[in-house]
Write a structure and sequence with these properties.
Shape: extended
Structural class: mainly beta
Organism: Crotalus adamanteus (Eastern diamondback rattlesnake)
InterPro entries: ITIH (IPR050934), VIT (IPR013694), VWF_A (IPR002035), vWFA_dom_sf (IPR036465)
Protein name: Inter-alpha-trypsin inhibitor heavy chain H2
Number of strands: 21
Radius of gyration: 27 Å
Distance between the termini: 73 Å
Amino acid sequence: RSTSNSENEEELILGDDKIVLHSYKIQSIITSRMANTMVQTKVENRAKYSQNLAFDVQIPKGAFIHNFTMNVNGITFTSSIKEKSAARSQYARAKAKGKAAAILRSNAYDMENFKAELSVPGGTKVQFEIHYQESIRRKLSSYEHLIPVQPGRLAKHLEVNIHIVEPQGISFVHVPNALGEQFIDATIVNKGEKKQRKCSNCTTTAVDGNLLVTYDVKRDTKAGELEVFNGYFVHYFAPDDLDPLPKNILFVIDVSGSMWGIKMKQTVEAMKTILGDLRSDDQFSILDFNHNVRCWRDNLVQASKMQIDAATNYVEGIHPNGGERETPKEM
């Protein structure tokens, strides 16, 4: 949490564009591995002329947006779902007329970008609020909940609250310092507004990253946990005393000219690490290609120390060669 009450600090928060971000709040409630997240911002245009205000939020892929509202001077506008082409057309027309409009766009492999733009007259206050749900997945023995925190500018009040409610009980909670060194004590409540700044007298925010929370639940029963709700059920099962299953792996490595330099060096180092992690009951082989294809072994081999050493020597001897794949010439 970060709050500013000083008039001098408020002047610093007021940028050259005369736009004030009064608050930036995120609240996420996790119940039985289901997260309900709300992102809310309150913005004011203190200029004497109209300006475009943007509400730009990163949302995890797979999350379900179930509500978006804009409140302009006490009047609330709610969102609706449209077919993709119709939505884009309506968004373009509304934006051209200076009306309130928002659209969901794909931004990255693991994130969606929700952006709303609004032409706001001078002296107008606007509140944006979006709600979305997502299922929390378990990876590497813990559940991960990622919340992008990107206010875009200094906020008079910045707050992120995460509540975790698990019927089985919580075995541990960990919050890695993913936002930067200045937020190493971010879990302490009521920190000063200067924590947001890139420097002591900067008017730009240093808050631009992801808040990651990892946790796991207690498991008192070997059969897992069964929950029933409204005629549906979910079975959580995570055995911790089973040996890993044997793996059959074929590594495919690009050795074309495009891999020359640091790319090939990184690939070789990664392969050496992966080969060292193989278990004795795993089977593997290696295939590399440019305009030709070459196999290290014709069949999968057991991951014995001798075979792993031989594979490591083979990988270390790989050198990029050639560029585009050759095409056969006409006879």
